[in-house]
């Protein structure tokens, strides 16, 4: 058995996600939709589906890490399908362990007017701090934007969906795509045909919205690895490294405190603490500029 894996700190590629399809039924009130006939083409007006686009933003530790990235314009006829890769302005090595995607589906209800159809929040790392990959089905919470906080109100998975038969079949298909299930050509054709038939039947009867996305697949499992930085060692005023004996002597020095009611000093457990100044080795920009000005004046 192969136990090879890769750490995120070694991956210098940008984070990307593929927006595949949106399934479900969403009804808009006629009073909410205001179409400007002078700006919208006849092809779009005759389309049975509204103009919809998706925005993706990365959050971590309750803070946005990137700006929102959205899909390009596309006119839809029968179903919502983008099949578009979105690249976020951040690399895998810079991701925190709490990184999650806040995905919101928007509808253009008028000129420069949009309304959220639904939102969902998807965590990039699993329970074992392993980067997720492959296809995923995300539950959309209707009529709200995605919540990117740690305790999100728009999780991508709910217990009701996880217990359904279709969700179990989708997990098996995902394992098949990742190579965890051995392919059998004569059996796969009939199995996928039956799965597709079940999927169409359940999708037509369901009123919930679901967004399908794809994540990149790597040759090895990717585990979260925090970037390590080498801090400079303690330096003395002369620029030479302080010896270990001097450091121990300074840290072991005791402080004596005088009690107001007693003239005898009392020994306390307080010790000196060495504070490391990381900027001590760096050049002072003010002094560097002063030296350049002095040299130019001399010349």
Automatic annotation (TrEMBL):
Gene Ontology process terms (BP): autophagosome assembly; endocytosis; phosphatidylinositol-mediated signaling
Keywords: Kinase, Transferase
Alphabetical list of InterPro entries matching this protein: C2_dom, C2_domain_sf, PI3/4_kinase, PI3K-type_C2_dom
UniProt KW Transferase keyword: yes
Residue span(s) of domain C2: 9-142
Domain C2 PI3K-type: 11-177
Source organism superkingdom: Eukaryota
PANTHER family xref list: PHOSPHATIDYLINOSITOL 3-KINASE CATALYTIC SUBUNIT TYPE 3, PHOSPHATIDYLINOSITOL KINASE
Designated name of the protein: Phosphatidylinositol (PI) 3-kinase
């Amino acid at each position: 058995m192969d136990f090879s894996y890769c750490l995120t700190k070694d991956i210098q590629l940008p984070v990307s996600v593929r927006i595949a399809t949106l399934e479900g039924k969403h009804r808009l009130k006629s009073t909410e939709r205001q179409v400007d006939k002078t700006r919208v083409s006849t092809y779009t007006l005759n389309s049975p589906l509204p103009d919809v686009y998706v925005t993706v933003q990365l959050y971590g530790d309750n803070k946005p890490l990137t700006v929102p990235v959205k899909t390009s314009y596309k006119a839809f006829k029968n179903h919502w399908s983008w099949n578009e890769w979105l690249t976020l302005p951040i690399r895998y090595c810079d991701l925190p362990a709490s990184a999650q995607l806040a995905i919101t589906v928007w509808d253009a209800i008028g000129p420069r007017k949009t309304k959220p159809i639904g939102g969902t929040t998807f965590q990039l790392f699993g329970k074992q701090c392993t980067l997720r990959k492959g296809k995923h089905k995300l539950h959309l919470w209707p009529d709200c934007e995605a919540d990117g906080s740690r305790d999100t109100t728009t999780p991508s998975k709910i217990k009701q969906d996880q217990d359904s038969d279709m969700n179990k079949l989708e997990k098996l298909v995902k394992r098949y795509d990742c190579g965890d299930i051995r392919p059998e050509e004569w059996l796969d054709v009939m199995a996928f045909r039956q799965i597709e038939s079940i999927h169409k039947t359940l999708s037509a009867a369901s009123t919930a919205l679901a967004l399908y996305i794809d994540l990149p697949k790597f040759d090895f499992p990717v585990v979260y690895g925090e970037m390590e930085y080498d801090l400079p060692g303690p330096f003395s005023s002369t620029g030479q490294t302080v010896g270990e004996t001097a450091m121990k002597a300074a840290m072991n020095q005791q402080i004596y405190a005088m009690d107001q009611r007693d003239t005898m000093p009392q020994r306390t457990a307080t010790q000196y603490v060495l504070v490391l100044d990381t900027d001590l080795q760096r050049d002072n920009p003010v002094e560097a500029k002063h030296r350049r000005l002095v040299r130019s004046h001399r010349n």
